[in-house]
Amino acid sequence: MVGLRWLVQTLVTLGTNAYLLFPFGSVIYQGPLKAVCHPGLNCYSCPAALLSCPVGAVQNFVASLRYTMPGGLPHLGTMVIGYLGFIGTLVGRLPCGWLCPFGFIQDLLHKVPLPKFSLWPPLRWVKYGVLVVLVLILPAVLVDKAGLGQPWFCKLLCPAGTLEGALPLIFLKPSLWATLTFYFWNKMIILVLIIIFAMLISRPFCRMLCPLGAFYSLFMRMTLVQLEFIEGNCVGCESCVRSCPTGVVPYEDPSSWECILCLRCLDACQFRALSFGIRRPLPTPAKRYETAD
Amino acid sequence: MPKKALWLIILFTLLFVLGINTGDLEYLLNLGNTICLSCIGVG
Q: Rounded to whole angstroms, how far apart are CA atoms A223 and A160?
């Protein structure tokens, strides 16, 4: 399973960033595939990106809501919400573990042989704040005179944008150097910190800051597929806990909001105490008939 | 299939179709075809 996941991550990352004509034509890909969002975090300003970024798309829809209202047909972005919600309901955070290019980059960085540390658990709540404040509230509230907001997550925080978008574009267009502002240097510092942390802690961005992971995690208790714990087979060896990259304890909470369904615990468990499949409906409690005295 | 998941799938499919019919697709295409200045830290 681990080998299969590496293969899928590699193919998805390369396959969705396969526009190799950028040095010869327009700087970024401008074809019809840009109408489709990537299921993971992948900057659409990356010169090789074929798909749009879902977080960038949501922010831009929210940011332009007031601007498009006077035209009578405001763009609510329901297409992207429906698309992400559909994925979330089907498979929850599985795209984080299998399809996200920035998650894959963090997995590669964690291979660097350095001492490893665990993440302080309360920090995982920060990503919900990022989702609500930077993706939903600020783009809707902080608007200019025309009623147009800004994608504040992209502007202030997104390290994928800096790594996949800003750095290659500056390399391709050196004239951009003169236009860089505080926001670029702020994001560069964040990117460097994320790279350092990713070498020491497994998936720090996904666990602490990613608004897309936060959105998908809301569905983890009701996804169509799930990780299931079979109590009778468990011998308490905790190999599943040691193998988990996001600090989940699968035997306590197999549908944890933090689980990215990478299925490493399935490989680690030699006693088949964990399985992965379609969620079964909870058994309906038997009706109680009360008898009158 | 759990009922809650089924209802959510129906809801999100309807939202997706609604978005396509209100021009979200063209909007997203226009958006994706321009360099995001916020992503690269310009402006």
A: 27
Domain residue ranges of chain A, discontinuous segments joined by +: 2-217, 225-278
- Would you state the pLDDT for residue A128? 98
**Per residue in A219-232, pLDDT tens?**
999 999 999 999 99
What pLDDT, in 10s, does the model give residues A93-105? 999 999 999 999 9
Q: Enumerate the residues of chain B whose CB falls inside 8 A of the CB of residue A192.
A: none
Residues of B in contact with A176 (CB under 8 A): 40, 42
Question: Could you tell me if A251 and A273 are in contact, meaning their C-beta atoms sit under 8 angstroms apart?
Answer: yes
If 0-12 CB within 10 Å is exposed, 13-18 middle and 19+ buried, where does residue A175 land?
exposed
Cα-based angle A13, A44, A58 (whole degrees, multiple of 5) = 110
| B16 has a pLDDT exceeding 60 | yes
B10 touches chain A (CB under 8 A): no
* A179 contacts in chain B (CB < 8 Å): 42-43
Amino acid A231: pLDDT: 92
Instruction: Choose which CATH entry (3.30.70.20, 3.40.50.170, 3.30.230.20, 3.30.750.24) describes domain A225-278.
Output: 3.30.70.20
Query: How many angstroms away from the CA of B35 is the closest CA of chain A?
Result: 5
Helix/strand/coil for A37: strand
Coil, strand, or helix at residue A225?
strand
CB contact under 8 A, B36 and A279: no
